[in-house]
């Protein structure tokens, strides 16, 4: 999707003027970011630049201090009434989160459930999908991430790459409209990164989802992203099509970062 | 309270290490080695044997202990009924204590200071007050509260009311006392278990749209209970032993019955031996059960 069409379509994710503080520490400065429906955006930047924090704000794992975040029609975390923000009740916040899936750096699979149970559990309990249907869909998803044979394995019996693929299937099983990836390959041994990236590429190509990925995998960003966003020191520094940002960065910070990462 | 666990764990590990060393030794047994003599160990072994023999002989040949009486009462209906009551009191108290402990532990980690403060106070009181004092309090509840009543607090409106003295049997008092005391300890164990579940698990549950209660029910508690099983086994064994204290309010348990019989035939030591044999037997069985539960938990 090009820059022109973005402005025509109403954004799926809209971040407006967001500041975020951790105690005395400001970690996000006046972030503005619009992401169109079906767009794939890669957030890159040095560690501590606030990319993960921004991602976590989008599904309200972190609270923002100023600004607004919208996903579709939902104002994330709040209801605006007569010019004042009212914190959402727990069930309303949960309802919002169902539409936004998340894949974590540390996988965070539930260790007391098998791979299959990890995937089918939330659709059964939250979406009230009939059990048989949820399980057959979980099997389909496991097959899709190449783990059909591991359905009854516990997370501790799987490699990091396999766990992360199950975690991706778990997030997809909830049929989210927006899927967030928080450094999905950073905790993996180098030889396991490829299999996870393959699953993600497949997802980008085939699933009709808006996808935001915080990543250090520049090759992945170049291949699948519609847009690359570079962040540094809590600020959004530069963004554009992958080739443009990665090959001819305009900003000095971006150049410095990229020359350090791409050797 | 977790001593038992630690001991078995170290025991099994060192056992494994020994096996390894031994197999290594047999392979390289061609070395002709004169082992070091451990004189201290030898002396201790001899002393141990002497102590053991003198204790056994001292009990067995003691003219003041009539062993036939021990044999006579070991399987007497009264003693068996007392044993049944002991097991019943322990099991019922354990269930109540566990439920209370989970509730208090969850309250203890509540963001509300009043709620967590209440839970902290609960733990402070029921862990701090000696069980025997607590039992006497509960047993004599009728002395300072006339009625159990359900109504609107701080008003005279009551929907249901029953005199304490009518319902407070020694059995009920025993169960209440043991449950309260046990729940104080167990709440802290459960809290430890709840806190041992990492932030990632909470966030993963949240991201899937689970609310706090569901996260607790489906994600945190199942994992925490697995961690809690071994220490809870220890608590069960402690509670079985602690249940002997209910004899001070005539709880009808094994010790109450044994002391009751000795009150009429004056064979105090013989009946204490009867009770001791049963306590040790039950605890042996429970320890074996616990060993297998722990083994299964560790395998997962």
TrEMBL record, chain A:
It is an enzyme of class 7 (translocase). GO terms for molecular function: ATP binding; ATP hydrolysis activity; ATPase-coupled polar amino acid-transporter activity. Gene3D superfamilies: P-loop containing nucleotide triphosphate hydrolases. Pfam families: ABC_tran (PF00005). Residues 13-258 form the ABC transporter domain. PROSITE patterns: ABC_TRANSPORTER_1, ABC_TRANSPORTER_2. Its EC number is 7.4.2.1. Keywords: ATP-binding, Nucleotide-binding, Transport. InterPro entries: AAA+_ATPase (IPR003593), ABC_ATPase_HisP-typ (IPR030679), ABC_transporter-like_ATP-bd (IPR003439), ABC_transporter-like_CS (IPR017871), MetN_ABC_transporter-like (IPR050086), P-loop_NTPase (IPR027417). It catalyses: a polar amino acid(out) + ATP + H2O = a polar amino acid(in) + ADP + phosphate + H(+). Belongs to the ABC transporter superfamily. This is ABC-type polar-amino-acid transporter. It comes from Herbiconiux ginsengi. The lineage of its organism: Bacteria, Bacillati, Actinomycetota, Actinomycetes, Micrococcales.
TrEMBL record, chain B:
The chain crosses the membrane at residues 39-60, 89-107, 119-138, 169-187, 236-259, 271-293. Belongs to the binding-protein-dependent transport system permease family. This is Polar amino acid transport system permease protein. It is a multi-pass membrane protein. The keyword Transport applies. GO terms for biological process: amino acid transport. It holds the Pfam family BPD_transp_1. Residues 83-290 form the ABC transmembrane type-1 domain. GO terms for molecular function: transmembrane transporter activity. CDD domains: TM_PBP2.
């Amino acid at each position: 999707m090009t820059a022109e069409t973005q402005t025509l379509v109403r954004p799926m994710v809209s971040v407006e003027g967001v500041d975020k503080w951790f105690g005395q520490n400001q970690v996000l400065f006046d972030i503005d970011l619009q992401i169109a429906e079906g767009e794939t955006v890669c957030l890159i930047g040095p560690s501590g630049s606030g990319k993960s924090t921004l991602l976590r704000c989008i599904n309200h794992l972190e609270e923002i201090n100023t600004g607004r975040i919208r996903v579709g029609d939902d104002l994330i975390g709040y209801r605006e009434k007569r010019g004042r923000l009212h914190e959402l009740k727990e069930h309303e916040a949960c309802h919002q989160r169902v539409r936004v899936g998340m894949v974590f750096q540390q996988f965070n699979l539930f260790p007391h459930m098998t791979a299959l149970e990890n995937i089918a559990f939330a659709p059964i309990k939250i979406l009230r999908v009939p059990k048989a249907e949820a399980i057959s869909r979980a099997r389909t998803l496991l097959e899709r991430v190449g783990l059909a044979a591991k359905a009854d394995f516990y997370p501790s019996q799987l490699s990091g790459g396999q766990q992360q693929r199950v975690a991706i299937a778990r997030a997809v099983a909830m049929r989210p409209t927006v899927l967030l990836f928080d450094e999905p390959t950073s905790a993996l041994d180098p030889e396991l990164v490829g299999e996870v990236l393959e699953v993600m590429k497949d997802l980008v190509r085939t699933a009709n989802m808006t996808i935001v990925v915080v990543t250090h995998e520049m090759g992945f960003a170049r291949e699948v992203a519609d847009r690359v966003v570079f962040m540094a020191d809590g600020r959004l520094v530069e963004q554009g099509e992958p080739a443009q940002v990665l090959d001819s960065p305009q900003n000095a910070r971006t150049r410095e970062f990229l020359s350090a990462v791409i050797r | 309270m977790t001593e038992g666990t630690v001991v078995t764990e170290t025991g099994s590990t060192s056992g494994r290490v020994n096996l390894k060393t031994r197999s290594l030794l047999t392979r390289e047994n061609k070395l002709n080695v004169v082992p070091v003599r451990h004189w201290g160990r030898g002396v201790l072994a001899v002393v141990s044997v002497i102590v053991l023999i003198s204790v056994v002989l001292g009990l067995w040949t003691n003219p003041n202990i009539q062993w036939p009486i021990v044999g006579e009462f070991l399987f007497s209906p009264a003693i068996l009924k007392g044993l049944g009551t002991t097991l019943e009191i322990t099991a019922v108290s354990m269930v109540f204590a566990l439920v209370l402990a989970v509730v208090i532990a969850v309250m203890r980690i509540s963001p509300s200071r009043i709620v967590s403060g209440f839970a902290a106070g609960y733990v402070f009181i029921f862990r701090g007050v000696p069980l025997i004092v607590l039992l006497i309090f509960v047993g004599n509840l009728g002395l300072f509260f006339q009625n159990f009543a359900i109504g609107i607090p701080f008003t005279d409106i009551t929907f249901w009311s029953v005199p304490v003295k009518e319902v407070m049997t020694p059995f009920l008092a025993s169960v209440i006392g043991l449950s309260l005391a046990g729940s104080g300890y167990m709440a802290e164990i459960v809290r430890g278990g709840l806190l041992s579940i990492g932030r990632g698990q909470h966030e993963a549950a949240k991201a899937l749209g689970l609310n706090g209660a569901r996260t607790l029910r489906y994600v945190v508690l199942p994992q925490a209970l697995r961690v809690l099983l071994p220490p809870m086994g220890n608590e069960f064994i402690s509670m079985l032993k602690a249940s002997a204290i209910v004899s001070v309010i005539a709880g009808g348990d094994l010790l109450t019955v044994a002391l009751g019989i000795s009150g009429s035939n004056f064979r105090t030591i013989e009946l204490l031996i009867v009770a001791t044999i049963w306590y040790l037997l039950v605890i042996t069985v429970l320890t074996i059960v616990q060993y297998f539960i722990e083994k299964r938990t560790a395998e997962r």
